[in-house]
Amino acid sequence: MPAPLRAVRRRGIRGHSLIIVSDDVMELDGVRITTPERTWCDLAEYLTVPELVAAGDWLLRSGTSSAARLAAAIERHPGRRGRGKLVVAVELLDAASESPKESELRAIVILAGLPRPEANAVILDERGRFIARVDLLFRKFGEVLEYHGDQHRTDRKQWRRDRTREAELESLSLHVMEITDADLRRPRELVTRIARNLRRRGWSGTPAFSTHFPPDRADTHRPTAS
User: Fold this and answer.
1) Which terminal residue of the chain has fewer beta carbons within 10 Å of its beta carbon, N or C?
2) Cα 68 → chain centroid
3) Is 126 exposed, middle or buried (0-12, 13-18, 19+ CB in 10 A)?
4) Using an 8 Å Cβ cutoff, are 139 and 145 in contact?
5) What range does the domain containing 87 cover?
6) In the chain, what is the greatest distance between 2 CA atoms, to the nearest angstrom?
7) Per-residue pLDDT tens for 126-137?
8) Are residues 104 and 179 in the same domain?
């Protein structure tokens, strides 16, 4: 509800009273709703920066919005709650990301002060033959990060393809690090391992965790941006 009207209070409904302008509202199938840009901004109260990046990447990838429109939405409400997270998240967006978990992983890496990796980078062999498109690539250091959902373990054909693909990449002197949701739940431990691998390959830096770096999450299920 637009402020100063009171939010709806009803079983099964979570109501909100918002300061809202006409540019923040659109109509879909006859129902008035907030625009994708305004909705993304409102999520800042509930999501971490990596989760905001995952949602924002999808908006860019699907053509639903753009980084410029999201940035403009942030500026329309300079006093909004969660603005600091939004300002950080909008600078991390990348339409090349193809899944929410890849987006979260990339944001975690950058928020930890590691080099910014390429998203969905194409790997060719010495003859120019396509080998793979990898989730994240630190090209200078020959380090690959691959997020694997549970289907990579439970689907036998997928598991075999992954092993062959990994062997091909490593034959090109790339090192492949597989990452799961359990790793994303303990981001500091994950960053420590990634940094260790990068240092083995010539990186001389150390992690410098942003104030917006996400905390560890409990292993119990909770809704996420993905």
Assistant:
1) N
2) 18
3) exposed
4) no
5) 19-95
6) 66
7) 999 999 999 999
8) yes
